[in-house]
Target: Fido domain-containing protein
Amino acid sequence: MGQTVAYQKEIIHYISPKPNDLHPLMSGLIESHKRMKAGNVAPVIHAAAIAYGFVFLHPFEDGNGRIHRFLIHNILSLRKMVPHGLMFPVSAVMLKNSLDYDASLEAFSRHLLHLIDYHLDEMMQMKVLNDTACWYQYIDMTAQAEALCEFVTQTIEEELVQELSFLASYDNTLKSIQNIIDMPDRMIDLFIKLCLQNNGSLSARKRVSHFDFLTDEELVAMEQAVNNGYKKGRHSQKRK
Model:
């Protein structure tokens, strides 16, 4: 993995295992996963070791980061740290804190680069000159486990609190609007979203295109319900 900064000039950020070493390394990672599950290793430690281990082995040309973050969700759910049916948005927290996330990756990759001898040919194809499998076999995951613990803590103390607050505000706003007008829930949902995207009010264009049947009095009352429900401005950002 590198960055092209000029013609035939690359800044190398990470070097993955040699292709011939990948199969035994992946087999070892899978066996480690089984042993940690059977040995009741703490879920966050388990998730950190396997998910970061996967991304450091980098078995695919693309998508390794997404699979790495999926593995965190999967293992935390598998180990029942996360209640069944609950979406635990730890990967969202990781991406929001990109500097800390990058630091957790570089805690391994930065030191690894000094241990690998490589050559880039004129086509900028890399050839690794020394044996490197040992550097990927027994990785010290302390920094990664600490980082994931912090991401999990932020998810619980901040992200989930915000999400639950948003949902509670939504339910209250929905009920308030239902008391104002008899309208399908999907239309109320659209109204709330459009107001939140526009600082608590429905734009004239959106009114014409979606809510031309509302009277002025109904519109004012519904906008007020949104602002009361969300404490005007606190959740005015776009929600998906």
About this structure: Residues 180-229 form one domain. The first strand starts at residue 2 and ends at 6. The longest helix spans residues 142-178. Confidence is low (pLDDT under 50) at residues 1-8, 235-240.
